[in-house]
């Protein structure tokens, strides 16, 4: 290799490193910015009053900034989405990975990909026009915009990530395991649920965690179907999520209100970090086990 | 040879463009017009600013959506040329050396589902509905059904206007707080028991606007003051300081008859 070539090699290395650092830089910038802008309001309000206060009246004359309703709503909403979404997603994944004929599989898989590509505002719009009036008529409640509506929309939105990751995990189960089970006289269904699924459990867990991450971070769609009032969560109550609390007030906010919105974003960020850590944990275990 | 001619042609054209731009500047007004204030006036002031910049391409027009009170403060401090307020100035603000010029009027319509039998409410009843004092439509002569209150998010200009006119600030028991006029209209159109409020100009056929105290909301009733739920859009200037040439030109333009169609297109009723 000539001197000239070596120089070019080094140069290209340098450029790639720089590009990689852009990503790292963005993450650092956002983290530092969020922490710096989120801390002052928490200090002023008091950590406990902020996290455990149950009233949010940011524009009142004597404002109160308690985000417990938002935290609980986000947790409940996500849990509900998982409750509806995981069974549907998991069984779809088992069907696609193990049972479906090739033609059906390709059709369903492209439908799932399409579902993943639908913008969240479209989910919100359909939810607002179909789901909200539907819930109102079905359950005889005054208004359908509620936690339940948000859970349903979220459960549909997390389906693609759950299905795709679960399918990959199930397909990665060594064929020998299944063959052995079948050879011992187990039926195919028994094999899939007693051998394949347990063997793929880390991957499926990762899919669930990914779904949680998607659900907790969604703002637009839930803003349109959840009513958006800072109430304590209940199934048919109008509720506000951590994400929508930031999104709905940011445009007009000022002073302590704006700082408090950054603090909410910081709390949300910590939630997402936790979820990412959980995801890494499952993926690592998958590799080792 | 061919390349060279092309290059030359390009150069000549670039020079011509630059020259025409320079000429444009020297003939016309230049400078900046800085406005600051009410978020509710965004559409109106945006339309006016755009039209003004089109007519005077040397002028830069800026609008900072901070809210009425911050806008008024900004004029006082001199950090902007013209303040925008979606409420009338208070006495002490006028006494501190500010002048208000009413640019336009904004009517807020109270809307219900087309199937709702109610067609008229007065301001006091609307306030009692929104504060949760009346929770069933039958108490105001309607169906036996719970009242579903739809409103805007905290900080919205329309919400501020509605709550200050009906005197329900911080007392409204909303079932839904939505972030745009369109969403409010959609939500009301989906629910026969819902009531909401929206800027007069944004209404469509999917909902019905109530008459308030017997007066239907329209451009005429807002302008003659008979429709109660309305507020002024005000240009705030310093009483004893002169505006810059560009700012004065914008002020004259905005309050001229030429601006009226732009203002009504943006959803308000022109005052001039």
Output the keywords.
heterodimer; A: about 290 residues; 2 strands; globular; B: about 270 residues; alpha/beta; ten-stranded mixed sheet; 10 helices; about 40% helix
Strand content of chain A: under 5%
Question: In sequence order, what are the helices and strands of chain B, one letter per element?
Answer: HEHEHEHEEHEHEHEEEHEHHE
- Range of helix content of chain A: over 70%
Number of strands of chain A: 2
Biggest sheet statistics of chain A: 2 strands, antiparallel
Order of helices and strands of chain A: HHEEHHHHHHHHHH
Unreliable segments of chain B (pLDDT under 50, ≥5 consecutive)? 22-27
Q: Helical region count of chain A?
A: 12
Name the pair of protein chains with the most residues at their interface, and give those residue counts.
Answer: A-B, 29 and 28 residues
**Structural class determined from secondary elements of chain A:** mainly alpha
- General form of chain B: elongated
Major β-sheet profile of chain B: 10 strands, mixed
| Rg value of chain B | 23 Å
Mean pLDDT of chain A: 91
Number of helices of chain B: 10
């Amino acid at each position: 290799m000539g001197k000239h070539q070596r120089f070019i090699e080094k140069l290209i290395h340098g450029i790639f490193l720089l590009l990689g650092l852009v990503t790292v830089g963005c993450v650092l910038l956002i983290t530092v910015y969020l922490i710096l802008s989120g801390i002052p309001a928490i200090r002023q309000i008091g950590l406990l009053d902020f996290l455990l206060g149950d009233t949010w009246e940011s524009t009142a004359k004597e404002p109160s900034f308690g985000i417990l309703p938002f935290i609980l709503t986000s947790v409940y909403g996500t849990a509900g989405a998982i409750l509806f979404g995981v069974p549907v997603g998991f069984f779809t994944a088992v069907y696609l990975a193990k049972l479906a004929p090739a033609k059906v599989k390709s059709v369903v898989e492209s439908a799932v990909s399409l579902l993943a590509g639908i913008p969240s505002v479209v989910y919100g719009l359909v939810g607002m026009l179909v789901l909200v009036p539907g819930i109102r008529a079905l359950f005889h409640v005054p208004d359908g915009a509620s936690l339940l509506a948000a859970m349903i929309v979220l459960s549909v939105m997390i389906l693609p990530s759950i299905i795709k990751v679960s399918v990959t995990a199930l397909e990665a189960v060594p064929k020998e395991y299944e063959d052995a089970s079948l050879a011992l006289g187990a039926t195919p269904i028994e094999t899939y649920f007693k051998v394949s699924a347990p063997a793929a459990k880390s991957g499926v867990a990762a899919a669930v965690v990914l779904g949680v991450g998607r659900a907790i971070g969604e703002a637009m769609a839930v803003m349109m179907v959840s009513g958006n009032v800072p109430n304590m969560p209940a199934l048919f109550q109008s509720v506000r999520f951590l994400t929508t609390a930031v999104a709905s007030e940011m445009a007009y906010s000022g002073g302590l209100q704006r700082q408090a919105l950054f603090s909410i974003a910081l709390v949300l960020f910590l939630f997402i970090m936790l979820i990412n850590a959980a995801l890494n944990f499952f993926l690592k275990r998958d590799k080792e086990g | 040879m061919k390349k060279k001619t092309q290059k030359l042609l390009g150069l000549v054209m670039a020079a011509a463009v630059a020259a025409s731009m320079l000429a444009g500047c020297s003939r016309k007004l230049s400078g900046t017009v800085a406005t600051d204030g009410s978020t509710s006036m965004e559409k109106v002031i945006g339309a006016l600013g755009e039209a003004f910049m089109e007519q005077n391409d040397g002028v830069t027009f800026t609008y900072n959506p901070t809210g009425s009170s911050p806008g008024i403060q900004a004029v006082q401090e001199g950090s902007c040329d013209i303040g925008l307020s979606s409420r009338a100035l208070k006495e002490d603000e006028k006494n501190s050396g500010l002048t208000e010029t009413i640019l336009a009027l904004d009517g807020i319509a109270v809307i219900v589902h087309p199937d709702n039998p109610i067609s008229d409410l007065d301001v006091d009843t609307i306030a009692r509905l929104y504060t949760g004092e009346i929770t069933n439509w039958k108490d105001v002569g309607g169906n036996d059904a719970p009242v579903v209150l739809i409103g805007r998010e905290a900080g919205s200009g329309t919400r501020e206007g509605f709550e200050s006119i009906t005197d329900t600030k911080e007392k409204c028991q909303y079932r839904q707080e939505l972030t745009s006029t369109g969403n409010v209209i959609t939500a009301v159109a989906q629910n026969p028991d819902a009531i909401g409020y929206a800027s007069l100009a944004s209404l469509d056929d999917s909902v019905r606007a109530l008459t308030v105290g017997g007066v239907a909301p329209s451009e005429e009733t807002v302008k003659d003051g008979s429709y109660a739920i309305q507020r002024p859009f005000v240009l705030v200037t310093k009483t004893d300081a002169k505006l810059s040439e560009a700012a004065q030109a914008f002020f004259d333009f905005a309050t001229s008859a030429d601006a009226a169609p732009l203002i009504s297109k943006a959803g308000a009723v022109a005052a001039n």
